[in-house]
Amino acid sequence: MPRALISVSDKTGLVPFARALAARGYELVSTGGTASALETAGIPVTGISAVTSFPEIMDGRVKTLHPAVHGGILARRGRADDMATLGKHGITPIDIVVVNLYPFVQTAAKPGIAFGHLIEEIDIGGPSMVRSAAKNFQDVLVVVDPADYPRVVAELEQSAGPSSAFRFELAKKAFAHTAAYDTAIAETLCTFQITDGSITRQGEPSVTPPELSLTLRKIKELRYGENPHQPAAWYAIDGSTALGSATVLQGKELSFTNLLDLDSAARIALEFTEPAAAVIKHTNPCGAAIGRSIEDAYVRAREADPLAAFGGIIGLNRPIDAAAARALVATFIEAVIAPGVDDEARPILAGKPNLRVVVADLKTDGSPANRREVRSILGAMLVQQRDEVSEARSQWTAANVAAAGLKVATKRAPTELEWGALRFAWRVCAHVKSNAVIFTDATRTLAIGAGQMSRVDAVQVAVMKAMGTEGKNPLSGSVAASDAFFPFRDGLDALAKAGATAVIQPGGSLRDGEVIAAADEHGLAMVFTGKRHFRH
């Protein structure tokens, strides 16, 4: 009789899978809670103590670390000496190992979890069995993911049994499972310290720990990278949200550059609590707006630069309703990302079958996976905390700007309307490639100068874009934002000439005095944030 050892923390699909194994003649061996679940379901099960002839001890800390278990897993069926050793010691081979590990990550996420409780969620026997089975994958099936149960049953139905390719696939997945588990433990333990003999938690896992191991799960192969000659794939980081757990509802295959643009769109959407929309081209916004509804926000963002918006990527921070769907399909766009799609909107979007519609949870938590950014350079990696415009989370008024770390640098302070516009501009400007200068009103962008080699060039590019509109100066009465300080007054002079009445920038230049004097000459209100938001 073949033997399957089952010991799982995640009991999703356990009972039907165990029944399927039992129906195919497998003796089921199990431990603790898993054995109880099988017995309750009326499935015959052999307790692990009957296999080891030794009781589970130390509250279950020691139960499977025994030669009767690991000998049965590691014995090479094609080696006569291995099989003779099993016979000599009365050990039965174990043909399937179904194990997933103690819920350490879920336990660690609980507020105020005591170290003594957390340490008991570090699985010892589970990883040992998984690694043993994965090492001997040619003879033993190792299953760590309940999603694989139906495939395992299907493979067992094959006349020749599970294929070598399938066995190897499960083995690789098993080693990734234990690697991710150990990484989570190492990161979490770094948040605890011993002080006066007590072990207490000091904070969240570090974004930049002494050693960093990333577990990446391939979502899918991409047609190619930035260019057709570059192979590429899309991966998820364990524990991440947003594009790490996105669902593609419809449309053509997403490309590498589509995903980069969707990321840029999602970042802007994350900055706003109001209904907000961003239109992205080549990772830069060509329009961003807030509105009364998500449809209103999108239309206003699109009309900020309708020529550039053609073929753009859209980010929304509200589910797509029918009105928004009709607006989206009214012109050609490549893709849209949103936190959901209403049922009434789906057939409208389906009328544009090539339109890529991506649904993702755009509410990121404080886990390292969501706070950490990793970028490759030649022969090395750069890691940083994700930039957030935290100083603009609350409304800005003359009464509360000091609490946000802001300083009015000029003789004239912004008006109430200008404060709202400056806050809007500052949240968008942080997501424009440096050097960046943008013009906005209180609810949408008016002109964007992105990625220029000098700040005055960025102003001139924005003005050039805006002046394409016939009639009155569209920048008259606008506000401007610069992602870093003005090194000379020429940039400030250009802003005033374009029609801006207020400007926000980090400050900190050696020539701040000259820049402030220029603002005063022009009657501009200028606010220093003391915080730079470069985006390279």
Number of helices: 20
Instruction: Please tell me the overall pLDDT.
Output: 90
Low-confidence stretches: none
Name the strands of the widest sheet in spatial order: 10-15-14-13-11-12
Label the structural class.
alpha/beta
As an assembly, this protein is single chain
What distance lies between the first and last C-alpha atoms, to the nearest angstrom?
A: 62 Å
> How many whole angstroms does the radius of gyration measure?
30 Å
- Portion of residues in beta strands equals 15-25%
Q: Helical residue percent?
A: 25-40%
* Main pleated sheet: 6 strands, mixed
- What is the number of strand segments? 23
What would your notes on this structure say?
The chain is α/β, with parallel strands linked by helices and 536 residues long. The chain contains 20 helices and 23 strands. A six-stranded mixed sheet has the order 10-15-14-13-11-12. It has a six-stranded mixed sheet with strand order 18-23-22-21-19-20, sandwiched between helices. The protein has a five-stranded parallel sheet with strand order 3-2-1-4-5, sandwiched between helices. Helix 1 (14-23) links the parallel strand 1 and strand 2. It is elongated and about 95 Å long. The mean pLDDT is 90.
Give short descriptive properties of this protein.
single chain, 536 residues, alpha/beta, six-stranded mixed beta sheet, 20 helices, 23 strands, 20% strand
